[in-house]
Every structure is written in C-alpha cells, then in structure tokens.
Specification:
Blueprint lengths: L3 H15 L6 H8 L3 H13 L4 E3 L5 E3 L12 H12 L6 H41 L1 E10 L4 E12 L5 E6 L4 E6 L5 E8 L23 E7 L1 H10 L7 E4 L4 E8 L3 H9 L4 E5 L1 H12 L1
Antiparallel strand pairs: 1-2, 3-4, 3-7, 4-5, 5-6, 8-10, 8-11, 9-10
C-alpha cells in the first residue's frame, strides 16, 4: 500500500508529465524534490499502472496522451466490464486478481489525479484574480512553454483572463511584452507585495491559435498533416480545432488559419517535418525553408 505522501507525488507526476513540453530526469527530480533513483521507481510504477511513459530523442520524458481516448487506459464502462470478466474467473485465480488490482488502481489514480489537478488550477486562478484585483505583480513559477520547450519563472503584471479561464493575459516585465499564459502549464503562482508599474503598457488582444497576441492576424499558414501531427496540434493548441478539416479519402488533416507570428507554427512544422506538408502561404513556405537551412 502507498502512504499518502507517495500517492500525492504520483498524482503530481501524472499531471506534470502530461503537460508539454517533455521533461528531463533532472527536472522531474527537482519537481518531486527526490532522487534520480526514486524518479525511475515512480516511472516504473506508472508503466505498471497502464500509463504509456515515453522517452523522446532528447531523452526527455512524457506521458503519451491520446486526446481521443480521454488520456487514460480505460473508460469507466470498459473498467467495469473488464472487472466483471475478471471476477468471473474466480477469487482463486491469482492472475485475474493481479489484473483486477491494476484496473482498480488505474481508475483511482485517474479520478484522484484529475480532482487534485482541478483543485490545483482553481487555487492558481484564485491567486491570479487576487493580483488583478489588488493591482499587484505576480510571479508565475515553473511555466512550461510549448514554444521555447523550457520551464521557467515569469515576473508579470496580470491583465485579465481569456474565455473559460483557460489562460491569463499578462504584461511580462523582462520582455516588456503582453503575453498569453496557459493556466494548465503553470506550476504555481505568488502574489508579490509590489504594485503594478507598467499599467499604461497593458494590452489585451484576443490571442491567435498559437497563443500570440497582436492587433493583426495578417500571416496565413496552411498545411496538410498525418493523424499523429493532428492529435498533437489539437492537444497543444485546442483553438486550432475549428481550422482543421479531416480528409477521409487520404486520412489526412487539412489546416489553414491566420496568425500573428510564424514562430510557433514554424516550430511545430519543424518538429513534425515528416508528418506535415506545408501548402502556404508563400511567406510561410519561405520561413520554413530558412529554418530548414539553419
């Protein structure tokens, strides 16, 4: 049996590894405040419980999540049905009891991790709201950027939330830019005892599909992609869904949209170069060609 602290860490690790970008062993050590040996024990445990723990070409770790299957090994109906089948084998069947235990643990982990994650996000939203209300600066801790593939702290002055509280618009002090921060990629926040100093520079423009703010969506991008690239694009950038069309005759996916910057879509294309065929615009094709030469 796990003690409460170990269960809590397991919940933390599940959500940490589901959030992009992939994490190094060292960053997981720091996040869990534990040793490398213990990290590998937790990873082995996740595999035993049915999670697909993947190591990419840079030896960074993540939990493979198929958004079509709700990111868990079994649906509630599948788990209940499998449980009935296993119990029909009889209590004396040790293999059946071993499988049953894993099914139950998997469901408990999913429910517990999701509940913990929602409570965690609610606390973050509450603290950000407090900073906005009191006009104070905010320290965003451990922000996982899908654009730079880094995890860093950000000193900001929050402006407002986007629809459904998916993200917060904030003025980042180090870059002097108004940016869009995904709530689910924030590890924690701290409301500082320091008043906002750059209110006259605060702006909120509805972000594009890739989270970039600006006044002009004047850059067109268009490509065709495999199911693999489609699933990751939808997972990383949920707003892209409205711009994607499935092509049943080829089982490919067509994507076309206007964006503020080529930077994020360019990174996505380069990361899935064999899965994406760039169709336009001419400016975007030239941008990708320059990245390829580099």
């Amino acid at each position: 049996m796990f003690n409460q602290n170990r269960i809590y860490r397991l919940f933390q690790l599940i959500n940490f590894l589901k959030a992009r970008p992939p994490k190094s062993i060292r960053s997981i050590e720091t996040f869990l405040e534990t040793s490398e040996r213990t990290v590998y024990r937790y990873l082995d445990l996740l595999k035993d419980l049915g999670f697909e723990v993947v190591k990419d070409h840079k030896n960074k770790i993540y939990i493979a999540c198929d958004t079509e299957s709700n990111q868990i090994p079994f649906t509630p109906q599948e788990a209940d049905y499998l449980k009935k089948l296993i119990l029909s084998a009889g209590k004396s069947n040790q293999l059946a009891q071993s499988i049953l235990k894993k099914v139950q643990q998997s469901r408990e982990l999913e429910i517990g991790a999701n509940s913990l994650f929602k409570a965690h996000l609610a606390k973050i939203v509450e603290q950000i709201s407090l900073a906005i209300l009191e006009g104070k600066q905010l320290l965003i801790k451990g922000y996982s950027s899908a654009n730079s593939l880094s995890i860093t702290d950000r000193l900001v002055e929050p402006t407002c939330f986007t629809e459904n509280y998916d993200a917060v618009s904030a003025f980042e002090i180090s870059t002097k830019l108004n940016k869009y921060f995904n709530i689910e990629r924030i590890t924690s926040v701290e409301v500082l005892d320091k008043k906002m100093q750059y209110i006259e520079q605060h702006e909120f423009n509805k972000p594009d599909i890739f989270g970039f703010q600006g006044k002009n969506l004047n850059k067109e991008i268009e490509w065709q992609m495999s199911m693999r690239a489609y699933l990751l694009l939808k997972e990383e950038y949920p707003m892209s869904i409205v711009s994607i069309i499935h092509l049943p005759e080829t089982n490919k996916y067509h994507f076309k949209a206007n964006v503020q910057s080529f930077k994020a879509p360019g990174r996505f294309v380069m990361g899935f170069y064999e899965d994406v065929e760039v169709l336009g615009s001419k400016e975007f094709i030239l941008y990708i060609q320059k990245l390829t030469k580099k």
